């Protein structure tokens, strides 16, 4: 089956990983501004002593990012040259409300995003905007305790209403919380909670999720009241999960993994109600649904203002094994797990499984019957600049080609896929490691892990390949005729 003519080919980024200008034009600090660079960054912020401070012994690469704040015209022109139909980016909440709880927005922040939107539309590129992409204003985390505090619902509601009212005439696709289910293993990024503010108490995580579900519903309400044609999606990590073997114990454990990780947040945001397995899930952590602060009015809001589509990131699949038969581990996107002997893996240990994407698309559509949008997918790798300046990233082309073929397979299966925006379409700072050397982009940015470089942009071989894919609407995935 051919890709639909309306298919949204494009790319995806996040403000905290590429904008830079972290203290420019009235922007306040976000939680990401205090995460140091380097492979130990997650371990540091999960430690018992971490306390929301910038520590001079560390470096903070995202403070500069790739300076998209001052290069956005150049970068969007390159996206347009590839033929992008859509560009997924996030608004930095603290650029609009520096502390997060103000009444009046920062007009300079709004002006910046207006300029980005205008630049996209100039080239016929649909903006796809994420409202919260691991960018909670630092003040809301440090002084309110993060998303476990119900006051954040009102602050987010005001923020969402502000930007949707300002940009809703031009922006038809919105996402609420990026990878909302990532808090299952890492509440810092998605919920703004650390050990000192209760991140290790699962009841706080589930309360924070409820508060985010309500906040998301308010965003859907604001968008639909602004214009019924606006579509709002949730955004989850989807890690297609396999039981290690036919042992019923592993099969049951895989089902429980899917309920607790892949489906819980989507069940509420798409179906508008808590799933039947909720109580069983809570009891695993020693509390009940009655221990959560959920009002009848909030539950009614969730039911009325559920999302219009599901967007998700897919980088890898996972394996569940609970009998101790195999303990060889692998790394992954916010979660690791048992190594799958049938799969290859990236330099960072992420298992490469394009068939898993097709399976995931089928599973999600079978369960929810709403359109699906793959808003993150890609290969993090070290790229080498040849003496002639070329970057021959055939490994990235191979990865992306196999995943585009998987999407085509899902279309054959009858799954309505809206679009595909590979992650880090231009090189940016890695969220998991704070490195520039873990590159995803079609566009190379001259910047190293120590913050040295010219920030010059150059096109990789994959740039020309993806341009061809878009021009052919997915019909030509070959590299035979690339002019590079």
Automatic annotation (TrEMBL):
Residues in the active site?
A: 376 (nucleophile)
Which Pfam families is this protein grouped with?
Glyco_hydro_1
Would the keyword Nucleotidyltransferase be found if you checked this record's keyword annotation?
Answer: no
Highest taxon, organism lineage:
Bacteria
Its EC number(s): 3.2.1.-
The protein's GO terms of the molecular function aspect are: hydrolase activity, acting on glycosyl bonds
SUPFAM superfamilies in UniProt: (Trans)glycosidases (SSF51445)
Is the Hydrolase keyword given for this protein? yes
Q: What class of enzyme is it?
A: hydrolase
- Key words of the record: Glycosidase, Hydrolase
Tell me the protein family, please: Belongs to the glycosyl hydrolase 1 family.
Q: Which PANTHER family match?
A: 6-PHOSPHO-BETA-GLUCOSIDASE ASCB-RELATED (PTHR10353:SF122), GLYCOSYL HYDROLASE (PTHR10353)
Q: What is this protein called?
A: Glycoside hydrolase family 1 protein
Q: Which organism is it from?
A: Lacticaseibacillus jixianensis
């Amino acid at each position: 089956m051919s890709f639909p003519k309306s298919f949204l080919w494009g790319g995806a980024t996040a403000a905290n990983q590429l904008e830079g200008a972290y203290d420019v034009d009235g922007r306040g600090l976000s939680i990401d501004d205090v995460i140091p660079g380097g492979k130990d960054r997650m371990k540091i912020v999960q430690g018992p002593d971490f306390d929301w401070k910038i520590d001079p012994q560390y470096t903070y690469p995202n403070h500069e990012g790739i300076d998209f704040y001052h290069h956005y015209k150049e970068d969007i022109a390159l996206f347009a040259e590839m033929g992008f139909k859509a560009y997924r980016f996030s608004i930095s909440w603290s650029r609009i409300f520096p502390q997060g709880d103000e009444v009046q927005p920062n007009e300079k922040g709004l002006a910046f995003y207006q300029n980005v939107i205008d630049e996209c539309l100039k080239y016929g590129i649909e903006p796809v905007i994420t409202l919260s992409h691991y960018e909670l204003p630092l003040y809301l985390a440090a002084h309110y305790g993060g998303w476990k505090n119900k006051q954040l619902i009102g602050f987010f509601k005001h923020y969402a209403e502000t930007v949707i009212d300002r940009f809703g005439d031009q922006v038809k696709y919105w996402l609420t919380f990026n990878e909302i289910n990532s808090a299952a293993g890492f509440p810092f990024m998605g919920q703004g909670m650390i050990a000192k503010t209760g991140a290790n108490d699962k009841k706080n995580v589930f309360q924070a999720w409820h508060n985010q579900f309500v906040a998301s519903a308010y965003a859907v309400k604001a968008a639909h009241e602004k214009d019924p044609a606006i579509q709002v999606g949730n955004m989850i990590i989807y890690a297609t999960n396999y039981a290690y073997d036919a042992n019923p114990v592993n099969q049951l454990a895989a089902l429980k993994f899917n309920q607790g990780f892949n489906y819980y947040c989507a069940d509420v945001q798409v179906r508008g109600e808590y799933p039947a397995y909720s109580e069983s899930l809570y009891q695993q952590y020693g509390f009940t649904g009655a221990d959560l602060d959920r009002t009848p009015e909030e539950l009614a809001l969730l039911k009325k203002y559920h999302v219009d589509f599901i967007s998700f990131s897919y980088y890898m699949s996972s394996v569940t094994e609970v009998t101790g038969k195999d303990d060889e581990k692998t790394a992954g996107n916010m979660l690791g797990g048992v190594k799958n002997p049938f799969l290859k893996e990236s330099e960072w240990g992420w298992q490469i499984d394009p068939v898993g994407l097709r399976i995931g698309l089928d599973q999600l559509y079978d369960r929810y019957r709403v359109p699906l949008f793959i808003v993150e997918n890609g290969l993090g790798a070290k790229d080498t600049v040849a003496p002639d300046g070329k970057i021959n990233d055939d490994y990235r082309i191979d990865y992306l080609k196999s995943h585009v073929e998987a999407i085509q397979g899902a279309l054959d299966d009858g799954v309505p896929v809206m679009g595909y925006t590979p992650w880090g379409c231009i090189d940016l700072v890695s969220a998991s490691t704070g490195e520039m050397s873990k590159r995803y982009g079609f566009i190379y940015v001259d910047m190293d892990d120590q913050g040295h470089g010219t920030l010059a942009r150059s096109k990789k071989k994959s740039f020309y390949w993806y341009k061809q894919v878009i021009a052919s609407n997915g019909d030509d995935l070959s590299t035979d005729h690339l002019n590079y």
